[in-house]
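$ ./design --mode recover --in tokens.txt
reading tokens...
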């Protein structure tokens, strides 16, 4: 049976609990922080009296309430670090969540840990069927948090959120109980075996379904888009490019895709055209090992450099490639930074 009284919740580092009167000053302070409030929709400024009234209304919270919203304090290292919110529909089956972390506690994974605990409690204790969240499309950090918990991007609602007098777009994410179970069951450790394997007629459909996280889509084309480009590769300096593509397997499971414009007499330096690691397999070291395998092939062909380019924006692949030794050449192509890896 559903249990809606699951507070307090304890994680490795956090306690999710009801607010106390002692939280009022800290709550008001981070709610008034322009950087914290930037992508949130509460009215500003938050005056001390209003903060006190709000905190007082949440003192007896023990869990979510059908047909209402509740705010839950997140305690870290003995003090208020932020809060999470949950609203249930009248049936108690559908939940919407929100989350806020004060600025001086951001960057420590507190939000992700708190939201994970809340989501699991909603599914496991409260019997919720679906959990949804909305974020401003510009709030990349918030979207990353959801993606790293297995939330599915469902689309952008245009001009759907009235925030301090202006209509803003609203990115929609959601997760079913089965989605969370599948995400928690995915492989997370470093694979024993990584291989570059040929894409065949039999495997193309499976490989084509691999997909990166939504926030990374602006940096890399889809696998199906790469298949199209391989079929119609186009030209560079009036010479047709020669694509070479492979699926990336991790312990025998399709985990990614890469494609290069191979070296030719006209284009003596190969170019890493596409590389995508499926969202389920990211942060396992697969990408770096795939590049190492590619480098082995290129060295065997006596290629001297491998080129790549990236969009230089927050959340982009620049740190990954720089970490592998790619260094910017100083050239910009189509607004992307070109970089090279010395294969010698």
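writing sequence...
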């Amino acid at each position: 049976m559903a249990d809606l009284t699951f507070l307090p919740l304890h994680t490795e580092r956090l306690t999710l609990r009801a607010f106390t009167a002692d939280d009022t000053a800290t709550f008001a302070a981070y709610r008034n922080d322009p950087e914290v409030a930037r992508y949130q929709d509460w009215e500003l400024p938050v005056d001390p009296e209003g903060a006190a009234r709000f905190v007082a209304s949440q003192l007896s919270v023990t869990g979510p309430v059908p047909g209402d919203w509740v705010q839950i304090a997140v305690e870290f290292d003995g003090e208020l670090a932020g809060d999470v919110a949950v609203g249930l529909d009248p049936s108690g089956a559908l939940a919407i969540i929100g989350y806020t972390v004060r600025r001086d506690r951001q960057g420590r994974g507190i939000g992700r840990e708190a939201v994970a605990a809340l989501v699991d409690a909603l599914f496991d204790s409260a019997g919720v069927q679906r959990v949804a969240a909305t974020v401003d499309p510009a709030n990349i950090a918030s979207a990353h948090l959801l993606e790293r918990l297995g939330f599915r991007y469902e689309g952008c609602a245009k001009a759907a959120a009235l925030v301090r007098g202006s209509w803003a777009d609203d990115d929609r994410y959601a997760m079913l109980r089965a989605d969370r179970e599948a995400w928690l069951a995915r492989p997370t450790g470093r694979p024993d075996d990584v291989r570059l394997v040929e894409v065949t007629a039999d495997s193309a459909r499976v490989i084509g379904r691999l997909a990166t996280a939504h926030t990374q889509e602006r940096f890399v084309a889809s696998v199906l888009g790469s298949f199209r480009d391989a079929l119609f590769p186009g030209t560079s300096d009036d010479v047709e490019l020669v694509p070479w593509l492979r699926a990336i397997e991790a312990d025998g499971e399709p985990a990614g895709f890469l494609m290069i414009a191979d070296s030719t007499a006209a284009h003596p330096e190969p170019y890493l055209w596409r590389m995508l690691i499926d969202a389920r397999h990211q942060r396992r070291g697969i990408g770096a090992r795939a590049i190492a395998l590619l480098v082995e092939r290129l060295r065997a062909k006596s290629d001297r450099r491998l080129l790549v380019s990236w969009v230089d924006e927050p959340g982009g692949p620049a740190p990954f490639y720089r970490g592998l030794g790619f260094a910017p050449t100083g050239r910009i192509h189509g607004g992307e930074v070109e970089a090279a890896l010395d294969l010698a």
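exit 0
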